[in-house]
Design goal:
The protein is α/β, with parallel strands linked by helices and about 350 residues long. The chain contains 10 helices and 12 strands. The protein binds adenosine-5'-triphosphate and magnesium ion.
Length: about 350
């Protein structure tokens, strides 16, 4: 059987800081299937970036994996050394960030930066040039040959993100980790880049883990959606299940605060703030903000209950003994064009 592109099993990751231990990832398990686009969503500080960066070990030294494992294309990399990670980065998995200027060198032409990324493939100079052009074209950059000799500053924000994507794809990774890749871009450009990612998945069978705080982005591109809250995966399912049959009150809250859903309805933001990860509460971390919380929410962490073979949610409301609650009207999503959000 082909190994899964990415398997994270019960991962616990903390930062050791002068204030104490920041428990940024608290027991997350998830699997990325071949050729799948899995979107992780949640509010700021819920652990999306940390989870993404942990896969390529792009975190500072005081970040520590306390337990659990990460497997990339079948290989256990939980405790891989920096030397091993240098081989893995780019080839097995590559990452793009919100601000492409964090990846692009300002004083190096785009062509030189792509060539640098192509080096591992040992191509001839002619092949390198042809491949550089092909890569730029594959991310939707026209007049690619002329573009090779330009510096990043000659490109617009959207074009820079395309260049960063071309560089990430140069060594033919199987997994692309994309952390808010379109957040800094305006609506139309955002959709163009998301559509490009879908095309890359279709053409190359690329597996994509995309992180966003914007459920509109998730609705546009996701096969499956995982919802993170306070370092935990609180709900995961197919895009249909998450948008049309959400089960976690936190997911209801996110959907209720989605502008696209609010057309004709009142936009209802979630009251309160996520908990401090230096001292997360003992029960369901969402309890204090959850209008439907029951006593046990304050005491015991809920397990991930199965809703279907593809859909799980960690809320005590799914326990057979819990009161039957209907999701609020504000969380009901009409079949919608999410990208307008
Ligand atoms: N280098 C670090 N040192 C200490 N704590 C950190 C560090 N990086 C992140 N954290 C903490 O880990 C938690 C998760 O942060 P993370 O950056 O993953 O959030 P996020 O979901 O990506 O949020 P955003 O939407 O704002 O990007 C937060 O509580 C954050 O303060
Ligand atoms: Mg982030």
């Amino acid at each position: 059987m082909e190994p899964k592109p990415l398997e994270i099993d019960n991962l616990e990751l903390s930062f050791t800081t002068p204030y104490g231990e920041v428990k940024a990832v608290r027991g997350v398990s998830l699997t990325l299937e071949p050729g799948e686009i899995l979107v992780l969503a949640g509010e700021s500080g819920c652990g999306k970036s940390v989870l993404c960066k942990s896969v390529l070990k792009l975190l500072p030294r005081y970040a520590r994996i306390k337990s659990g494992s990460i497997r990339l294309c079948g290989r256990d990399i939980t405790h891989a050394s920096e030397a091993e990670m240098t081989k893995i980065r780019g080839t097995e998995a590559a990452m793009v960030f919100q601000n492409p200027l964090t990846t692009l060198m300002p004083s190096m032409t785009i062509g030189a930066q792509i060539r640098e990324a192509l080096r591992r493939r040992h191509l001839t100079p002619e092949e390198e040039e042809a491949e550089s052009i092909r890569l730029l074209e594959s991310v939707g950059i026209t007049e690619a040959r002329q573009r090779l000799s330009q510096l990043p500053l000659a490109f617009s924000g959207g074009m820079r993100q395309r260049c960063a994507l071309a560089i990430a794809l140069a060594a033919q990774p199987k997994v692309l980790l994309a952390d808010e890749p379109t957040t800094a871009l305006d609506g139309t450009i955002q959709i163009q880049i998301l559509d490009r990612l879908k095309k890359l998945r279709d053409e190359r069978g690329l597996s994509i883990l995309l992180v966003t705080h914007d459920l509109g982005v998730a609705a546009h591109i996701a096969d499956r959606v995982g919802i993170l809250y306070a370092g935990r995966l609180v709900e995961i399912g197919t895009a249909e299940e998450i948008f049309y049959d959400p089960r976690h009150p936190y997911t209801w809250g996110l959907l209720s605060s989605l502008p696209a859903a609010a057309r004709g309805k009142r936009l209802t933001p979630i009251d309160g703030m996520p908990p401090d990860l230096l001292a997360p509460p003992p029960g369901d971390a969402f309890a204090s903000r959850n209008p439907y919380a029951i006593a046990i929410d304050y005491e015991k962490q809920p397990p991930l209950f199965d809703v279907s073979s593809t859909h799980k949610a960690a809320t005590w409301l799914l326990d057979p003994r819990a009161p039957k609650i209907t999701p609020p009207e504000s969380a009901r999503i009409e079949p919608f064009d999410s990208t307008k959000s």
